[in-house]
Specification:
The structure holds two protein chains of two kinds. Chain A is an alpha+beta fold. Chain A is built from 15 helices and 13 strands. In chain A, strands 1-2-8-3-5-4 form a six-stranded mixed sheet, sandwiched between helices. In chain A, helix 1 packs across helix 4. By secondary structure, chain B is of the alpha+beta class. In chain B, strands 1-2-3-9-4-8-7 form a seven-stranded mixed sheet, with helices on both faces. In chain B, strands 11-15-12-14-13 form a five-stranded mixed sheet, with helices on both faces. The radius of gyration of chain B is 23 Å and the shape is globular. The relative contact order of chain B is 0.17. The chains are: A alpha+beta, B alpha+beta. At the A-B interface, helix 2, strand 5, helix 4, helix 10 and helix 12 of A face helix 2, helix 4, helix 10 and helix 12 of B.
Chain lengths: 426, 429
């Protein structure tokens, strides 16, 4: 059976997307609250969903939820908190194997879906507030997560770079906040935020897997029982303005390798041409950056470009030795200039397009990637299939790529570098 | 050419193993309706194979640390100065390679024209080209890779744990080697290693997706270069049962300390190895899995957070460890609580209800894992290179027949508190 895709609004600000394909042996359902990012609510939103995943009125402890998930053949309940440009999504998802593949075809899908719905909409409350035990536990965990940001150098440097690149915009706000803020969050704030999310956040339901015939009504009924108000209006796409002058930021730590991030911005408004441009410049193992900056010049272990279409921003990331930072920056700018000047062959262009098509078509083979793919289509306010996107890619011309490249200006530079002194050659 | 079909009635899945006349074992899993084809060409060669002999060597020879990984990087270059990635570019395949402690594999993933990508894969892996110039050029890039690894506290913690657990086993050696050891690598050494370990008798091809098995075999017939079995033998020094160090600490810029606890157990092979792996996984779940009292107590007390995880680190006949890792302000206290809980499990036995639940979890994990072409191709390769006697579906039978008594009888040996090490990485004061 071919893949089927359907998206519809089922209530005030509630969208249901259903993607089915008989080749899958498991199902995935994600329900997220979607809101604009703001510094006060960002940590509250993620904390609320973490608390919701701990317990519900029917399964009042984390251990009971874990056991029930285990009994359902290891169904996975997960929290999902992420930012897309100036927007954030916070929610829960469940993945479970289809009834056809349980031992003796035991029916588990309704029980799995109930765990998800009960956690989201029938939480464990004590005197009208979330269970204090789980509030404390998740607040402590939020503190740990804030402190642990330093543990992952790549993630840390990316977050710090965003503070420079998107200065003054919601996209620069930390989703976790500060330790002091985490400690000061009250149970009252959390329950109020939860009620506000249920009432007025957009709700995105995405189901991807073999079939949802036996559970669809259960989900829709539960969502339609929510008391809803007019939802908060927002747009996913919000291009970041180019700075008048490139902003430079150097940060030193006790690290061995420097992480260099360069951001370029444009108001060029065709995501697929921009993606081809990013692939030609630094999105494939034969791209300009990989072939020249890494392979020919041996300046870095990795050097790649990615385009953030909601912000109109191209980000080049690189792992370099401290003494090569200046050379690497210059080399990246030279390669960008080469693309602007049309210094790439039709073959290079064709290869970049084919490479992108492989990535897009492979989305068809995973319930997660397929769900993510259509979530992103929704951000773009389109509903193209991966194959349709590939057709668009294949029709992109060299001149379009050149025009796109020329529209980008150099916005910001950030580097996390070792503290040790080196003989700079910059 | 000898062909076997490996089938699972419960999962409604099957794959094929062909013992090709060239010496290569070929694993094929046809997954109709999937868009992707995933292929891995792997050899039983990793960082632990640093001392070996073949019919061509004069006894055992020892090579510099990190050479298997170095060789993997260099195999992407050819004598006409072209790059393998340039060849793949025309098919749209996404290609990569990796080296672990005991496996090196070259892989591609594509959605169209898998036949041409397979030809490229077979051709380049069988065509080494090492020169003084191209070997030297790679040193800078690999040194950067080593430095990147050194900046990861969790990786540092894990590497230190292996060094603490093992006294002589080359598992102690980092896969990438050191900046000093890779400086000793020469084209001659690379050819020596290549000729020993990239012999088709030591290799496996694994391919999954919407493939035509006959076409795959035709391509193999055309591209495989038969080689005589050179009777390769790796030397592994005898490893004492005891660990080298009970506690190892290190520093790195971290916001919260990271820790790893490892339990060193007896090695085994064949079905016994698989059964012990299943039991070990279930014992870790009983000890500190999400349904355990200990995990929930530590979480509620704020001693751990949900980054805590467990896994098995095993190689058939070579090493066998149970690992616990995570972030904690006071790893020593977590370690002590873990040891105390093991003593309780030894005297009271495991929880029978949770044991039955865990059997269902493992069955479900197996179903989910074959939902994905990439996972199927990887699993076929790993199982086969780790132990040729095992098939991907053998563990289903083991799980179904496993008893509580069998698990209880293994607690003391698999989770031996006398043979365990704690590795901690804290912030520099």
């Amino acid at each position: 059976m071919p893949i089927s895709y359907e998206r519809k609004m089922i209530g005030e600000g509630i969208a249901l997307t259903e993607i089915t394909d008989q080749k899958f042996k498991s199902n995935y359902i994600n329900i997220s609250f979607v809101t604009p990012v703001d510094a006060v609510n960002a940590p509250l939103n993620s904390l609320v969903t973490e608390i919701l995943a701990c317990a519900n009125a029917k399964l009042p402890t984390l251990i009971e939820i874990s056991k029930q998930l285990g009994y359902l053949y290891g169904a996975t309940l997960a929290t999902r908190s992420r930012r897309v440009g100036d927007i954030q999504e916070n929610g829960l998802s469940i993945e479970y194997i289809c009834d056809e593949f349980t031992i003796n075809k035991e029916v588990i899908s309704d029980k799995a879906v109930d765990i998800l719905l009960d956690c989201l909409f029938d939480p464990l409350l004590e005197n009208g507030l979330f269970c204090e035990k789980y509030v404390s536990m998740r607040k402590k965990e939020l503190e740990d997560n804030i402190l642990a940001e330093l543990n992952d150098k790549f993630g840390y440097s990316t977050r710090r770079a965003k503070e420079i690149v998107y200065k003054g915009e919601p996209a620069s706000i930390s989703m976790l906040g500060t330790v002091d803020n985490a400690r000061s969050i009250t149970s009252q704030q959390l329950i109020q935020r939860y009620e506000a999310l249920k009432r007025s956040a957009c709700i995105e339901v995405v189901m991807c897997g073999r079939s949802f015939d036996s559970v669809r009504e259960r989900i829709v009924t539960r969502l339609l029982n929510l008391e809803r108000e007019k939802t908060v209006d927002f747009k996913y796409k919000s291009f970041s303005p180019l700075k008048d002058k490139t902003e430079y930021k150097y940060e030193s730590q006790d690290v061995n390798q420097s992480k260099m991030v360069m951001a370029f911005k444009s108001s060029f408004d065709d995501v697929y041409i921009a993606k081809v441009f990013a692939a030609v410049l630094g999105g494939t193992p034969t791209s300009k950056l990989f072939a020249n900056v890494r392979e020919k010049m041996s300046l870095c272990y990795y050097c790649s470009a990615a385009y953030a279409d909601m912000k109109g921003t191209l980000v080049v990331s690189s792992g370099v030795a401290k003494e090569n930072i200046g050379k690497a920056e210059k080399a990246v700018l030279q390669q960008l200039e080469a693309v602007k000047n049309g210094d790439f062959t039709e073959e290079e262009l064709e290869n970049a397009k084919i490479y992108l098509c492989t990535g897009f078509k492979s989305n068809n083979d995973s319930i997660y990637r397929m769900a993510e793919y259509y979530i992103v289509q929704n951000y773009r306010e389109t509903s193209y299939s991966p194959e349709q996107v590939c057709n668009i890619f294949m029709n992109v011309t060299k001149q379009q790529v050149i025009d796109c490249a020329r529209s980008f200006g150099y916005d910001s530079f950030y580097v996390l570098q070792p503290e040790t002194e080196v003989s700079e050659d910059e | 050419m000898n062909k076997q079909i490996i089938k699972s009635e419960e999962l409604d899945e099957q794959y094929t193993i062909v013992h090709h006349s060239s010496g290569l074992d070929i694993m094929m899993w046809k997954k109709e309706d999937f868009s992707t084809v995933e292929a891995l060409f792997g050899t039983k060669y990793g960082s632990i194979n640093n001392c070996f002999k073949t019919d061509d060597t004069d006894g055992f020879i020892t090579v510099p640390d990190g050479i298997a990984h170095y060789l993997e990087h260099k195999l992407f270059e050819s004598d006409d100065n072209s790059n393998v990635f340039d060849l793949y570019a025309s098919t749209g395949a996404s290609a990569n390679a990796f080296t672990s402690t005991d496996i090196t594999a070259y892989l591609f993933s594509c959605t169209d024209n898998y036949e041409r990508s397979l030809e490229i894969l077979l051709e380049f892996v069988q065509s080494p080209y090492f020169t003084v110039e191209n070997v030297q050029k790679e040193q800078g890039i690999i040194a950067q890779e080593i430095k990147m690894g050194d900046d990861s506290p969790s990786r540092k913690c894990f590497k230190n744990l292996l060094k603490a657990l093992y006294v002589k086993n080359p598992l102690r050696i980092d896969v990438a080697g050191t900046v000093e050891s890779i400086a000793q690598i020469t084209p001659e050494l690379l050819y020596q290693c290549y000729n020993a370990f990239y012999n088709l008798h030591n290799m496996t091809l694994s391919i999954a997706g919407n493939i035509d098995e006959q076409k795959v075999l035709e391509i193999c017939d055309r591209f495989l270069k038969p080689s005589a079995d050179k009777h390769l033998q790796s030397f592994f020094p005898e490893e004492p049962r005891e660990v080298g160090q009970k506690l190892v600490t290190d520093t790195c810029p971290v916001g919260i300390p990271v820790f790893s606890i490892g339990f060193k157990a007896v090695v085994s092979e064949g079905k016994e190895y698989l059964k012990r792996s299943v039991i070990a996984g279930m014992l870790l779940e009983q000890l500190i899995g999400q349904t355990s009292a200990l995990y929930n107590q530590l979480l509620e007390e704020g001693l751990i957070n949900s980054t805590l995880g467990t896994y098995m680190y095993t190689g058939s006949g070579k090493y066998f460890c149970c690992m616990i890792e995570g972030e904690a302000a006071d790893p020593q206290q977590v370690y002590e609580r873990v040891c105390k809980e093991i003593e309780r499990l030894k005297s009271e036995g495991i929880d029978e209800e949770r044991f039955e639940i865990d059997k269902r979890v493992r069955y479900g994990e197996k179903v989910s894992s074959i939902n994905d072409v990439k996972a199927c191709a990887e699993a076929m390769l790993y199982y086969h290179l780790d132990n040729e006697e095992l098939t991907l579906f053998d563990d289903l039978e083991i799980i179904a027949s496993l008893t509580v008594d069998e698990c209880n009888s293994m607690i003391g040996e698999i989770l031996d508190v006398e043979r365990c090490s704690l590795s901690i990485v804290t912030n520099k004061q």
